[in-house]
Amino acid sequence: MLDTFIQGLFAVFQWQTFLVMLLGIFLGFWVGLLPGLGGTTTLALMLPFIYKMSPVEAFAFLLGMHSVVSTTGDITSVLFGIPGEGTTAATILDGHAMAKKGEAGRALGAALMSSLIGALIGAFALALSIPIVRPLVLTFGAPELFMLAVVGVAFISSLSGEGGRALLRGILAGLLGLLFALVGQDPQAGVQRFTFGQLYLWNGLDLVPVLVGLFAIPEIVDLAVRGTSIAGELPQENLSKGVWTGVKDTFVHLGLTVRCSLVGTFIGIMPGLGGGVAQWIAYGHAVQSARDSEERTGFGRGDVRGVLGPGAANNSKEGGSLIPTIAFGVPGSSSMAILLGAFFLQGISPGPDMLDKHLVLTFSMVWTMVVANIITVAVSLFFLNYLAKLTLIRGPVLIPFVLFFSFIGAYTSNNHLGDLAVLLAFGFFGYLMIRCGWPRAPLVLGFVLGRIAENNFYISTIRYGSAWVGRPLVLMLISLTVIVLFFPLIRSKWQESTKGETQ
Amino acid sequence: MQKFRISFFFLLVLVASVPSHAASVFEGKTITVIVGYKPGGGYDRYARLIAKHLPKYIPGKPGVIVQNMPGASSVIAANHLFSVAKPDGLTFGTFNNATVVAQLIKVEGVRFDLAKFSWLGSAASDAVILTVRSDVPYRSAGDLRKAKQFVIGTTGPGSSTHDFPALLKEFAGFDFKLVPGYSSSADVMLAVERKEVDGRAGSFDSIKPFIDRGLVRPILRNRTTAPGIEKLPVDEDLATSQNGKIVMAVNAVPTQIYRPFVAPPATPKDVMKILRDAFANALKDKELLAEAEKGKMTIDYTSPEDALKVVAEVLSQSPDIVQELTKHIKFGD
Fold first, then answer.
1. Which of the four pLDDT bands, split at 50, 70 and 90, describes residue B261?
2. Spatial separation of the C-alpha atoms in residues A66 and B73, rounded to whole Å
């Protein structure tokens, strides 16, 4: 197995393969940066180009492109507060807050380095899990997937901010998110829900217009109102020097970075959870790592850990989601579904074959992700100083471009004016939420998890009656949910008692 | 005599200029192919494949681009092609073949009439089959009928994964327990492998790799056949009532025009002739066929006349059948 592993590395460095991989990286770099233009759509558009390539070349190209999208998407999230990709929205919360404090360089350095570590962990997880992946995925059935969604929803308690009132608002926001997820045709009886006769809403609300609306529009409004540049009137020495501080931060908090990478990988492995979930759960976990309630209030205002968590997770999930795609031919996310098409185009049937007959190809895919991300991060680090200076441009000059890209980005979802209507509606709603002090992260989490939770609950109940609740893994996940829900409460009580002792 | 010669000469010029007028319609222009789904899916791939090879067969060699217009299981695209797109030959498109059923059962939001479109034809037919996991003890349709509460995973009403077994349950006496809600047919396949469900129905093309791998075995098919499954029993033959047979037929017939391509109604006849011939020829093109083979895309041309016959057959059903159909079939993805 080790020699196949090395063979995979050499396969990537053949000059033709390396060249197409560079081409893919170049494409992915810009796709990630531009908000809305998604890695998934671009993958689909690139499919016709791989007809004449060999399998290793084809996947070096496609994966070279797709695996760097989450890395550069973080850059847009940090600098402008617009999600560069659907999967990089969580980075906005603390990343953009840091940019507004004049710490854009540090945030970018942290985002890039954590992305690299996440990508490496995800890629090696793919390589290492090959012997155990089949039994692992087969054990997680609909009841377990439902419980995973519940655990995810429980993280709302960590995303809501400090205090009982914030928690209540967080829970309400989460439930509202679940409600928004209901829009569309229900998969059990085929009935239209909340579509108000609009054909556009049949398939539900699309993630990108909702995210861009919730996060980008309020930022743009805020920028317009302030009248300054993104970095405000604060002293600028921190701006570019901060990059290396950010990089170092990743290693100072290496434990958190690695843990969030593992979370991202695991979520990527579970088919059906989708790409948008990992970043929020990682963010929730990062918040939990705060040592006391004072630190916790720092989240959302520019705590570097809030960048490290999602930055790592949204890259590690790439490697994770390749696992069920390769091992079972079941895509872990919609971009994986497109990649599956690429497999068939190359005449390869994903499944057990990939883990023995085509093992070199599988390992070459692992190495592609590793090498592509190393190259991207290295190249980006050179340009970061210039990128960070973008936050110095005056708001009135920047806003038209940012607004333009937000609109285009939202429109690419469905090429339908409805996308823009959703963008504006959620933009307005997001602005209201900020003004009234309601957290947006729980709403997004509820929205992303809604369908998964509902479908899997329904499947579990139809298939197993009530017996599924007693399954061992389900019981474990129930206890995990309770722990996650009450963790902040438990910890503050424990800290109060230890504080009391020292006094 | 002179007058006759002059008028004959004018007539000749007129006649000769008509095809070149039609040819000049495409010179230097771009044709847009509208696809009712997002990039990457089956309909999109067929459209892009055809878009790539079509210009060779159209005089004037226009550029051909694809525009995705997803939404409402392609009803949005169908509506657009029917009333918004200009009928000048520079736009045509493809959408869900089940839209003909949507039209029949009067789904809300449908604002097109498939019989009025200018048809180019269909690029492929699709056999729908029912499969069971290989380790299950039922080897034939007869065996399967005896099973109690046999679990079949589906992606929800409106898709072939759901409707095919639902009709078998209702009209052919199979005791199926349908479990809808899986987010894609690939997820159903995983559930089969995981033993959460025991069977799966759906398009033969997409299940074929799993049959070849030995994960599932085919038991039944609908009336559309494909190489390798000709000998399977057909669902209509197992129906226990005449109504049931007809409902199954109405549900199955559109799969013969699985990848329909149409142009807006009232597109001029001469322009349509060019498009139709180009379409038919492109589907015989060696390079296209080689690429399709590589991408495991079946190519199986249906002429526009035959496609219209299929549409007419579905739309001419009596109100009782429509009522029966509405009870069991929903339109969706």
1. very high
2. 27
| B305 Cβ contact list (under 8 Å, min separation 6) | none
Indicate the pLDDT class of residue B196, thresholds 50, 70 and 90: very high
**Cβ contact (<8 Å) for A203 and B330?**
no
Q: Nearest CB to B71: which of A47, A202, A454?
A: A202
Can you say how many angstroms the Cα of residue A122 is from the centroid of all Cα atoms in its chain? 13
Whether A51 sits inside 8 A of B294 (CB atoms) is: yes
Q: Which residues of A touch B155 (CB under 8 A)?
A: 187
Check: pTM over 0.80? Answer yes or no: yes
Give Rg (Cα) of chain A: 22
Q: DSSP letter at B233?
A: P
Nearest to A344 among B67, B210, B295 (CB): B295
Q: Please check whether residues B119 and B147 belong to one and the same domain.
A: no
The question of ipTM being above 0.95 is answered as no
Q: Does B266 touch chain A (CB under 8 A)?
A: no
Are B54 and B102 contained in the same domain? yes
**Domain annotation covers residue B174:** yes
Please count the structural domains in chain A.
Answer: 1
Q: Which domain holds residue B110?
A: 2-124+258-320
Does residue A455 belong to any structural domain of this protein? yes
pLDDT computed for residue B8 by the predictor: 64
Which residue of B40, B179, B332 is in closest CB contact with A463?
Answer: B179
Contact A74, A91 (CB under 8 A): yes
Summarize the confidence of residues A413-432 as an average pLDDT: 91
Q: What is the mean pLDDT of residues A450-460?
A: 89
Closest Cβ–Cβ partner in B76, B197, B213 for A351 = B213
Q: Which of A40-44, A55-59, B137-141 has the lowest mean pLDDT?
A: A40-44
Distances in Å between the Cα of A267 and the Cα atoms of A270, A273, A284 are 5, 7, 14
pLDDT at residue number A457:
92
Out of B253, B268, B284, pick the residue that ends a domain.
B253
pLDDT in tens, A232-275: 656 555 556 678 888 888 899 999 999 999 999 988 888 777 77
Interchain CB contact of B287 with A (< 8 Å) = no
Contact assessment for residue B250 and residue B328, using Cβ atoms and an 8 Å cutoff: no
Q: Chain-wide mean pLDDT for chain A?
A: 84
Which residues of chain B lie closer than 8 angstroms to A462, CB-CB? Answer: 177, 179-181
Percent of chain A with pLDDT over 90: 18
B76 CB within 8 Å of a chain A CB: yes
Domain hosting A299: range is 2-493
Q: Of the candidates B70, B24, B28, which has an alpha carbon nearest to the alpha carbon of residue B47? A: B70
| Nearest CA-CA partner of A47 in B35, B39, B206 | B39
| Minimum distance, in Å, between the CA of residue A36 and any CA atom of chain B | 15
pLDDT of amino acid A11? 85
B196 contact A CB<8A:
yes
How many whole angstroms separate alpha carbon B170 and alpha carbon B45?
Answer: 34
Radius of gyration for chain B, computed over Cα atoms and rounded to the nearest angstrom: 22
- Residue A501, in any domain of the structure: no
Q: At residue A483, what are phi and psi to the nearest 5 degrees?
A: -60, -50
The structural domain count of chain B equals 2
DSSP for B141-206, written as a single string: HHHHHH-SSEEEE-S-TTSHHHHHHHHHHHHS---EEEE---SSHHHHHHHHHTTS-SEEEEEHHH
Question: What type of residue is B331?
Answer: F
